[in-house]
Design brief:
The protein is an all-alpha fold. The chain contains 17 helices and two strands. The protein has one domain: Hydantoin permease (Orthogonal Bundle), CATH 1.10.4160.10. About 80% of the residues lie in helices and about 0% in strands. It has a two-stranded antiparallel ribbon with strand order 1-2. Helix 6 runs parallel beside helix 12 (about 245-255), helix 8 (about 145-170) runs parallel beside helix 11 (about 215-240) and helix 15 (about 315-340) crosses helix 17 (about 380-395). It is a multi-pass membrane protein. Belongs to the purine-cytosine permease (2.A.39) family. Keywords: Membrane, Transmembrane, Transmembrane helix. It comes from Desulfosporosinus fructosivorans.
Length: about 400
């Protein structure tokens, strides 16, 4: 099959894909972290953060559609072949982390439901079941059957969000009660920005198959912005009202036990599929002869093992770690592509030492802004600073590179 014949995904396909990806227990839990801000300030942080983060996400996707290349391959434009290998390894590690996080939070929610309904308390069993279902979803691939299944899943998940929203917004304490704990507005904003940012190393893996640039970008923006913002708001409201953002508790209270079980499993599978599948795509940047689908299944198996064996509790720190690497990385790539008109991969460029050094500086600056509790968070100022520095210095640093001798 030719590459052009694969470019058949419409705006509707991307809207449902990213809306389904956004509807997950992990995003609800992330929204719950903002509870100390209260509902009004938490809502402001969520909407502003997602406006910035989703726009950056879509800009990365535009590169994939225009050049018809996966996300990590596009980093060769700024960092060279070996530079892209470094980020590929880091991306595989974060995707394994995401796979494990998604499986464990989904398994915990389902386990709470089965424990309440039938006294079935087996977290490991549910982790294995969810992991196996993700492998099946990966095996189905991105054919027409997968698209139909994804549409059905999104409809069911959409109904879930309505149910959760009704449960939360009918409580009048939502707008006056504060959540427990302490958090600055800047850190809340950062937690909203970093979630869409975490998808930046993945989005072009899917937008490269878009029929049109507008369809891929518009569908991705609408699906993710509204889906993720909604999940954050549900988590924020649940944490304020009940001090527990886990949706299983709310669904059990609404007597939706068996329905809740199925929907939470579905939400976890549809979102984690993207992580596992992109881990396969990313590894192909280093080892192009590997089978993408087989690699994705292996990554799911490893992620399932991590979910069972490793105690993943530092969720907030994990999100900051992702932001510290990928904020400066994509600040450089987006600056190169959209502002410096550096749009093509140079076959002879192996390493651009200047951009790698600038990326390391960005990671250092990221944690300085986190410690400062800056009102705009860390991603926004770091990306602006790194972009400006790159615009000023690129004529000099473009010479700091290692090239292949033909």
């Amino acid at each position: 099959m030719s590459i052009s014949s694969k470019n058949n995904l419409s705006m509707f396909n991307y809207t449902t894909l990213w809306f389904g990806a956004a509807i997950s227990v992990a995003e609800i839990l992330a929204g719950g972290l903002l509870a100390p801000l209260g509902f009004k300030m938490g809502l402001l942080a969520i909407l502003l953060g997602h406006l910035v983060g989703t726009t950056l996400l879509v800009l990365g996707g535009v590169i994939g559609t225009t050049e018809r290349i996966p996300a990590l391959v596009s980093t060769r434009i700024s960092f060279g072949v070996y530079g892209s290998y470094v980020f590929s390894v880091l991306n595989v590690l974060q995707l394994l982390g995401w796979t494990a996080v998604m499986i464990i939070v989904g398994a915990r929610s389902v386990n709470e439901i089965t424990k309440t309904l039938w006294s079935f308390d087996h977290l490991t069993v549910w982790s294995l079941i969810i992991g196996a279902l993700i492998m099946v979803w990966v095996w189905l691939g991105k054919d027409s059957g997968w698209k139909k299944a994804n549409h059905i899943a999104v409809i069911l998940l959409f109904l879930l969000t309505i149910v959760l929203s009704v449960i939360i917004f009918r409580n009048h304490e939502l707008f006056s009660k504060l959540g427990t704990g302490d958090m600055s507005f800047g850190l809340g904003l950062e937690l909203a920005v970093v979630m869409p940012l975490s998808w930046l190393p993945l989005i072009s893996d899917y937008t490269r198959f878009a029929k049109t640039k507008r369809g891929g970008a518009g569908g991705s923006w609408l699906g993710y912005f509204f889906g993720s913002s909604w999940m954050y708001i549900i988590g924020l409201g649940a944490a304020i009202i009940a001090s527990n953002p886990d949706p299983s508790a709310m669904l059990l209270a609404a007597n939706l036990g068996i329905v809740a079980l199925g929907i939470i499993v579905l939400a976890t599978v549809t979102t984690t599929f993207l992580d596992a599948n992109s881990a396969g795509v990313t590894l192909l940047n280093i080892f192009p002869k590997l089978n993408e689908k087989i690699v994705a299944i292996v990554m799911t198996a490893i992620g399932t093992g991590l979910a069972i064996l490793v105690n993943i509790e530092e969720y907030e720190s994990f999100l900051y770690l992702i932001g510290s690497v990928f904020a400066p990385l994509f600040a450089i790539l987006l600056t190169d592509y959209f502002l410096l008109n550096n749009k093509k991969i140079q076959a002879d460029l192996l390493v651009n030492w200047g951009t790698l050094a600038l990326c390391a500086l960005g990671t250092f600056l990221y944690y300085q802004f986190i410690d400062l509790n800056f009102v705009l968070g860390a991603t926004i100022p770091v990306m602006l600073i790194i972009s400006i520095i790159h615009l000023i210095t690129w004529r000099v640093t473009v010479k700091w590179k290692y090239v292949r001798k033909f």
